[in-house]
Amino acid sequence: MGTANGSGAEGVSSSRPSVQPEIEVTVWDGEEEQTVSRKRQRKPVAKPSRRSSSRPSESTSFQQHEKIASLKGLWNKKLKGRLRTQQKLNDEATRRLRTTELMLFEEEGGLLTEGLEKTYAIPQADIVKETDLGTREKILALDLPFGPYAVDFSRNGRHLLLGGKKGSLSLLDCHTCQPLCEINVKETVRDVKILHNHTMWAAAQKKYLYIYDQQGIELHCLRDHMMTYRMDFLPYHYLLVSVGEFGELIYRDISTGQIAARHKTRRGPCDCMRQNPSNAVMHLGHMKGTPAVELLCHKGRVTSLDVYRDYMVTSGVDGAWKIWDLRTYKPLHAFQYFGSPPSSARWSQTGMLALGFGSHVQFWKDAWSTPKPRSPYLTHEYDGKQVESLAFRPFEDLCIVGLTSGVDTVVVPQSGIANFDTFEANPYETSAQRREREIHSLLEKLQPDMITVDKSNRVGAIDSAPRAVLAEEKQRELSEKAEMKKTKKKTKQRGRNTAAKVQKKAALQYNQKVRALTAKRLEQAKADQKANKNARNAEEGFSALDRFRNREKASYS
């Protein structure tokens, strides 16, 4: 039975309250002429007349900062100066946003067809010929001998990490197409992952998990992560997540080096794992744990899965791949495939779905939409090669395909976000900006116990429980902590600390605990009985003659 399981770390002991990471989920000929639009369309700009002011109008869509009404009533000169400076900064920020609005792209590009033309029939050569020069310079095609290759991008899309199964590891700068490092570890490499930035990246090798720097120098050997098959990284929690041959899900905080949580799924080897970026919950797919959610997705082994917003795609060896709604955990669409099962499934930033079948790659647009899409958006084939992995380049309309003998690039219009937030991920950041962002992200790091599947328990949500219930829960937590607190043994003399006395004292403490639990159960049973009686009386109605019912039963008996 194919199962996909998602795990959310809810508690450190157990991407939070004691990290409880698991959501377990017992879990598809046109003509030569075509019109291909350019990658991104600029918003038309009207030149201002001489009489009109060159300053942008006040009716822009930017949210303005709240203005301070008046500073006349403030007697504190220091506070008044700070508020005046803050107001100037807010006005300057709003002015800059308005002036740069004209430089933003209105929407992502795409493919436009005419008549009976189909987008999936347009070959890559025609698409590349019509794209802009900047996109053509970013297309990468490498014929490498140590495949098949696993690929991964950094968060800003500038660096590409390649891992060949026969031991080759390479880190490339996508702007210059020059390798930053290239090493051969001379053993099996199953997966690679860039961590918070390109200065640290991880490789799942034959037995252990290793961490390297941008020069290829080994920094750490994590012997707790044995026989790792898949890795992922939670950027807002600084957690490296791994799963492998023994089915053990491990969360490691790379900022401290400590293990935040480890969970034994008890479902055998796991070769399929992805995170949900919206809540940092891990989704696992394997043959056979305390999961948060468990779904039967396929009648065979799960081969790949990925998550985008509230939707999840899964594929199995049963001849189908499905789109799931994570709000209801029910399938939206099911598609049939022929031939090899999908080896990799990936969502882009805009919701473009890429699937690798044997030597074929398919791209689906709005795969979750209603009605169900009938044909793919784009297709591409690699004759004589097998697709091993897929990765969309952030903020670009490019998809890197890891093959059995190298890597290749497919141009997928409308797969990348046109406008990006430089404070979140900046492809053009300098070394000083990178160091500054790294410090800020460490200071703003979220704790593992904040990962949760239930959105009602998120930070900032209102607790609807009554005050009495909250007080009772707090009292219960305090009592549990007091019981768990270890008492220091006293060193007694003259035979008072013999083995018999210690055993007798332990038995006495155990009996006291049992009596306390029994009394608590009896009290709870009485309270439940009283509540049921009150509810029954409320339903049937109570009269003054009901007091004689028990006496009548007793007299007849």
Overview of this protein structure:
Helix content is 21%, strand content 31%. The protein is globular and about 90 Å long. The protein has a domain at 2-28 and 131-411: Methylamine Dehydrogenase, Chain H, CATH 2.130.10.10. The protein has helices at residues 77-100, 124-130, 133-137, 431-443, 467-484, 499-540, 549-556, and strands at residues 2-7, 23-24, 35-36, 40-42, 105-108, 111-112, 149-153, 159-164, 168-173, 178-184, 189-194, 200-205, 209-213, 218-222, 228-234, 239-244, 248-253, 259-264, 270-276, 281-286, 293-298, 302-308, 311-316, 320-325, 330-336, 342-347, 353-357, 360-364, 378-381, 387-392, 398-403, 406-411. By secondary structure, it is of the alpha+beta class.
Name a few traits of the molecule.
five-stranded mixed β-sheet; Methylamine Dehydrogenase, Chain H; 557 residues; disordered C terminus; globular; alpha+beta
